[in-house]
Amino acid sequence: MSSPLDLSGTEKPRQIQENLMAYLPLFAGLPGTTLSGAESFWFVSNTSAPGNMILRTHFEASCTEERIDAMLEQIGQYSDQIDWLIFPDD
């Protein structure tokens, strides 16, 4: 059995993150979709595709817990579940 390919030291994770962040806004404006892209980038569609995702978080270390709580509270206004993809630069 082969081990999974580790791409964490390459540009691939950043490229995947950027591609997803370019793709999801194409759905913005459709009924039931919400997009946020300031300190964090998240998307809620409440449908099976493309789904609900957090794709980027850039918070100051001094207020990370508070910002995460605020982000999850905001997302909670639209959905009770979300997938959080964590990339190396987050």
What does this structure look like?
- The protein is built from two helices and four strands, in the order αβββαβ.
- A hairpin with an 8-residue loop joins strand 2 and strand 3 (53-57).
- It has helices at residues 12-23, 64-76, and strands at 34-37, 40-44, 53-57, 83-84.
- It is 28% helix and 18% strand.
- It is an alpha+beta fold.
- It has one domain.
- It has a four-stranded mixed beta sheet, with helices on one face.
- The radius of gyration is 14 Å and the shape is globular.
- The N and C termini lie far apart (31 Å).
Layout of helices and strands:
Elements (H helix, E strand, L loop, with lengths): L11 H12 L10 E4 L2 E5 L8 E5 L6 H13 L6 E2 L6
Parallel strand pairs: 3-4
Antiparallel strand pairs: 1-2, 2-3
Output the keywords:
90 residues; alpha+beta; 2 helices; 4 strands; globular
Count of alpha and pi helical runs: 2
Instruction: Report the principal-axis shape.
Output: globular
Oligomeric form: single chain
Number of strand elements: 4
Question: What is the CA-based Rg, rounded?
Answer: 14 Å
Order of helices and strands: HEEEHE
Query: What's the main sheet like?
Result: 4 strands, mixed
Ranges where pLDDT stays below 50 over 5 or more residues in a row are none
Q: Roughly what is the average pLDDT, rounded to an integer?
A: 90
Distance between the termini: 31 Å
State the strand order across the main sheet. Answer: 1-2-3-4
